[in-house]
Every structure is written in C-alpha cells, then in structure tokens.
Amino acid sequence: MDFDFISKTFVRLLAALPLTLSVWFLSVVLGALIAAGVTWMRVSGVKPLEWFARVYVLVFRGTPLLIQLFVVYYGLASLPAVRASFAWGFLRDAFNCAVLALALCTAAYQAEIFRGALLAVPHGQVEAARACGMSRLLMFRRIIFPIALRHGLPAYSTEMISMVKSTALVSLVTLWDVMSIALKIRNDTLVTYLPLILAGAIYFVFNYIIGAGFLALERRLSPHLRPRPS
Amino acid sequence: MGDLAIFGFGPGGWGLALLEGALMTLLVSACGLLIGGAIGGLVAWARLSGKLIAGGVGQAYAALFRGLPELLIVYFVYFGSSALLTGAANALGHEGFVGVPSFAAGALAVGVISGAYQAEVFRAAYLAMSRGELEAAVSVGMNRALLFRRIIAPQVLRFALPGLGNLWQVALKDSSLISVTGLTELMRISQVGAGSTHRPFAFYLGGAALYLVMTIATTRFFDVAEARATRGMRRATG
Amino acid sequence: MSATPALTVDTMHKSFGQLEVLRGVSLTAKDGDVISILGSSGSGKSTFLRCINLLETPDQGVVTVAGETIKMRRRGDGRAEPAERRQVDRIRSELGMVFQSFNLWSHLTVLENLLEAPLHVQKRPRAECMEEARALLAKVGMSERENYYPAHLSGGQQQRAAIARALAMRPKVMLFDEPTSALDPELVGEVLRVMRALAEEGRTMLVVTHEMSFARDVSTRVMFLHQGLVEAEGPPQELFSGSTSERFRQFISKERG
C-alpha cells in the first residue's frame, strides 16, 4: 500500500471539493427559487399557468439530466441568437451553464416535493385558520408552510443527496470537480481504481452528512415522535 | 441540409440512427432493470431474512450504491468488469486484455444501481402483503417453493408495480450515462450527430424529445399493467 | 345587554351545482341565546353554519354580526362573493368556530394553539394573551396539558382545547359544527359539560348537533331544518313536548337520546 500515493491523491481530490460543493449549493438554491415559482403557478388556479407548470415538470423529469446539460452547454452556445444577446456573458462560462442546467432539473423535482407537501396539510387545520380571520398571507406563513415543511423534509433530503450525485456530470462539460480530477489522476498515473474509490468515499461521506443533518432536523420538528412531557 | 431534414430517413438524414439509438437505450435499460430485479430481490431477501449478517450486508449494499454518483459507478463497472474478465481469462491461460462489451458493462452498471432501490421496493411490497393469505396457503399444505411461486411472488409484484414503474423511468435516464463507454445508445448518437453536423442544439433537443416520448409511452404501459394486475384487489387508498 | 341582536341571518340560499341545499333560512340570535340547530343529514344545517362565517359563500342572504353587515357583491359570472376581504377576516375573528374534527394545529402545543390568533390576528399584547389563555385552559380543564401536542391528546381533550382556542379570540358568537359527532361515546360528556358551562355563563352560541339532551336541556331555542328550510322553531319545551311539525316528531323519535 503506497500511503504516500494515497494521501497525495486524496489531497488532490479534496482540492476539487469546493467546486463540487459550490455547484451543488448554487444549483440547489437557484432550483428552489425556480421551484417555488413553478409550484405557485401549479396551485394558482389559472389554467395556462397550471398547464405550463405541469409541462415543465414533465419535461425536466422525463429527460436525462445529461442531455439537458448538453442542451444548455453545447446547444445554447451554438445559437447565433444567443451569442448576440446579453445572455452570452453569462452562458459563455461553463460553471454558469452547469449551475443553470442542474438548477432547472432539480427545480422540477423540488416542485413536485413542494406540491406533495402542500397537499399533505390537513384541510381542516387550514379551515380553522380561515375561521379565525387569518389573512391568506398569515395563514400561509404560520400554518400551511410549517406543516408542509415537516411533510416535505424526507423527500427533500433525498433530492439534496441526488443533486450531490448529479454534480458528477459537470465533469463532462470541462469543469474540474472531484469526478474529473479522479479521472485525470487515473489517466496520468494509470492507476484505475484508487482514485475512483477515494472519490467515491468523498461523495459518500458528504451524502451521509447531508442525510444525517436532515434526519436531525426532522426529529427536531416532529413533536409527535417525541414522548409526552411528564 | 435544412433543419428538419437532418432528422429525416434519406441519405444524410439522422432519423434512422437516432431511432436505433433509442432502441439501444430501451434494450440496455430493460436489461439493466432485469439485472436490478435479480439483485434487488436478493438484497430484499437478505434484509427480510432476519439473519444479522445477511441483513447487514444487504443494508450496506443499498446504502453504498445509493450514496455514490451514478457516473462514478458506470466508470467503475466499465473499467472493473474488463479487468475482472481479463484476470479470469489470463488465469485460464488466455493472453492479453479481454474487454467487456459496453452493452454488458452498461446494463450491469444500471442494474447495480437499480438493484439498490428495487430492494427497498420489494421489501416494502413484501411487508405490505396480507399475512392471512400466507397462512391460508400454508394451512392448505403448500411447500415453500410452491408458496413462493404461486402466492408470494405474484402479490409482491402487484404491490411493487408503482415503485418499479418509477424505477424504470430512472433506469431510462441513467442509461444516458453509459454514453461515456461509447455504447451507441441515444445519448451517444445525439452526441455524434451534434459533433458531425455542428448542430448541437437541434440534436440534443431532438434526443431529449425522443427520451420524453419513451418516458411517456412506457409510463402508459406501466399504468395499464398496474390496472390489470390490481383488478379485484382492495387498496388502502380509495 | 344591547338591543342589537348578536347575529342575524336573512333568507340564506346556497346551492352546490344543481342541488339547492339552503332554500331561504333566516335566524336571529340575541345576546345569550343558545340555539340548537337540528336536522337529518342533507338538511343543510352544517352548510348554514359554515355560510355564516363564509367558509362557504352563500348565493343569497345577508349576515349581520353585532350590527355589522357583511358586504357581498356579484362576480362577472354571476356568483356571489364577499366584497371586502378585510371585513370578512375581521368578522371571522369575532366569531369563534368549533369543528367536528377539532382541527387543532398539529405543529403547535395546546398553549401555542390558543395564543396563535389573539397574537397574530388580533395583535394583542403577549402577556395579556398568555394570561387569558391559561385562564381558559383552566376553565375547560386542560391546564396540565398546555405543553402537549394535539397528537398526544384524546378526542375529548382536543375538542376542549379547541373550544378554549375559539374562546381566546373573545368572540361575540360561538359556532359549534357537530362538536361531539367525532368523539367516542365516553368522551362526549366532558365536552358537553364545557358547552353547558358556557351556555350558563350567558354566551351566545349556535350549535349544530345530534345530542338531543343538549338541545332539550341547555338551549334557549331549537331550530329544525328539513331539506333546506326551517320546519320548526321555538323554545325546546314547546318543540319537544309535542310539536305541530310531523317531520320533527318523526325526527326525534329516530334520534334517541
């Protein structure tokens, strides 16, 4: 066991972790914002908006992320109309393209999670809030959102982990994330498995931390899982 | 060539190649799903057995392959299966490198991933089964093999159908990652076409459209299958 | 006691699609009135109650709470809707509703449930709301469980907490929508006791119920609805000891108890 090689490889992989994490974080946050908009459209009651939201979710959940990524990175960049517009300043950068594509994809999954969580809020408790004279905004802030949050946390945790795994795809659009560094080390040193195993360990640990974090949050917010006060 | 003519079926048209890619996608995904079914069944059985070691191994398998990026697993299986096969062949006297065809490696990768999720679907489906029906079969004198074949397997499949339908869609999408091995499935064909004609937008959009058609069509199929399989069954939801 | 009635409803109509559920129901409640609303299922009694605080929107009819009339208007498609959202919210905060399925907010403790509306809707100072909430919990016998979550409570406990929650808003009129129908028989009594105490205090209450004992012994008036119309109305002694309405006599003979 060449510990020197192992530690050198590990350090090189860790150096790429900030890129992976920033792609993950930015796409998740941007995706959440887009998802909030899509969900709002879905429950708006306005037929064209609802239709758009449903089509959006269908398209972005029904096609592979890889091809979506290539449409944004290779496809949009090739269009003269895009190159001439203000969007080109943003899209010429691979990092931006990657974050955008991942965000559009996770938004579709997050929108479905939001929708399911909202549907899970017991209708009677919403009525009780209305009967008290709560305005729509107050009702959403104090009753609907807190209850929906508790219902949506498990699925949201799964999606967060799924997004970490999805960041590995940015290695295919010239970004130097953990995945692409591992492949580069393999190419340079002809050692196949060690870089991949170490990279896998890094992803695995990070996913474990996310899962544990969400579990702790779920426990804190779920009083019915706690014992009765004495 | 005009924009849409690119997708046509005449000479210079990529329509046929794309459809062939789609067919390859369907085939490799289906094989992957079946492999995943076998693995998932094994892992579920291990976890339900009640034996500590088997259960632990099963749980570890599921946790491992759900916590690793799918792309990483594709690379690992692709490189690893060739190395294993080469090692085995060399041990048997054959000289040199033996490569595993990318179809097999790809299907295996998809299967390994799918199996981790299918295990959970099967486990939940088994636990949802009615104990009473099992007892009735046992009391009639069915032996274990018959019990499994005639009672358990059909019931588990019926409960598992919704989850499996979802995992099929996942397999279809995961199969696009096999393009890195060079397999000529839909993603790879789109890539080749985009590069060859310098029209990435058209090809990737077209490829995406084909994926969407496959997703919608096969979802229909699963809905119909589910309706037929659960006819006459009492469900928890109305 | 003021001369203005606490609540008046003038000829209320409500249809669900083709089905006309309320066909002209009127009611006047003075301060201190305890009115039991009886009827078989489909008679429209719950719909009537829910139209008063606009959980359902009546197609026709005027609701006046403590002299203030809820303004209504017609939409483009001919359907009625409240004219001013804010007025509806305000009037709702003057009406306390108790539901058949309790509807306590599951993410809040009993005490937090009682504080929620007074603090955030009526914007009263926290110390005052806290003091009043604790007093109300003592009144309904739930003091020991103020830090419990609804999931840890029995049906009877939840309903008593729900009554306290409605009372915390200092409502002018209390609306009860079949408050004991979802309870196990042995838990019904504790809720009826609380309701009786409120009636004896002089609270104005409208109670949709199947509990004949409550209707007969506690209410000041009884209103019997049949297929969307008022079939019989009057003091309980009058109705229960031999009403002129044949349907009402049939009704009570079916509902023993």
Word description of this protein:
The complex is a heterotrimer of chains A (230), B (238) and C (257). With 230 residues, chain A is an all-alpha fold. Chain A is built from 10 helices and no strands. Chain A has helices at 3-42, 47-62, 65-78, 80-84, 87-91, 94-119, 123-131, 136-166, 178-189, 193-221. Chain A starts with a helix and ends in a 9-residue tail after the last helix. The relative contact order of chain A is 0.13. The model of chain A has no long low-confidence stretch (mean pLDDT 93). With 238 residues, chain B is an all-alpha fold. Chain B has one domain: MetI-like (MetI-like fold). Chain B has 8 helices and no strands. Chain B has helices at 15-48, 52-67, 70-91, 102-128, 131-140, 144-174, 186-197, 200-229. The longest helix of chain B is centred in the first third of the chain and has 34 residues, at 15-48. Chain C has a domain at 7-94 and 171-254: Rossmann fold, CATH 3.40.50.300. Chain C contains 9 helices and 12 strands. The mean pLDDT of chain C is 92. Chain C has a 6-stranded mixed beta sheet, with helices on both faces. In chain C, strands 2-1-4-5 form a 4-stranded antiparallel beta sheet, covered by helices on one side. Chain C has a two-stranded antiparallel sheet with strand order 6-7. Chain C has 257 residues and is of the alpha/beta class. Chain C is globular. Chains in contact: A-B, A-C. Chain A binds chain B through residues 58-59, 62-68, 70-71, 74-79, 161, 164-169, 171-172, 179, 182-183, 192-193, 196, 199-200, 203-204, 207-208, and chain B through 64, 66-72, 75-76, 79-80, 83, 169, 172-177, 179-180, 187, 190-191, 194, 198-201, 204-205, 207-208, 211-212, 215-216.
Task: Give the helices and strands, then pairings.
The complex is a heterotrimer of chains A (230), B (238) and C (257).
Chain A: H1 3-42, H2 47-62, H3 65-78, H4 80-84, H5 87-91, H6 94-119, H7 123-131, H8 136-166, H9 178-189, H10 193-221
Helix pairs in contact in A: 1-2, 1-6, 1-8, 1-9, 1-10, 2-6, 3-6, 6-8, 7-8, 8-10, 9-10
Chain B: H1 15-48, H2 52-67, H3 70-91, H4 102-128, H5 131-140, H6 144-174, H7 186-197, H8 200-229
Helix pairs in contact in B: 1-2, 1-4, 1-6, 1-7, 1-8, 2-4, 3-4, 4-6, 5-6, 6-8, 7-8
Chain C: E1 7-16, E2 19-29, E3 34-38, H1 45-52, E4 60-65, E5 68-69, E6 72-74, E7 80-82, H2 85-92, E8 95-98, H3 110-120, H4 126-140, H5 155-167, E9 173-177, H6 185-201, E10 205-208, H7 212-217, E11 221-226, E12 229-234, H8 236-240, H9 246-254
Parallel strand pairs in C: 3-10, 3-11, 8-9, 9-10
Antiparallel strand pairs in C: 1-2, 1-4, 4-5, 6-7, 11-12
Helix pairs in contact in C: 3-4, 3-5, 4-5, 5-6
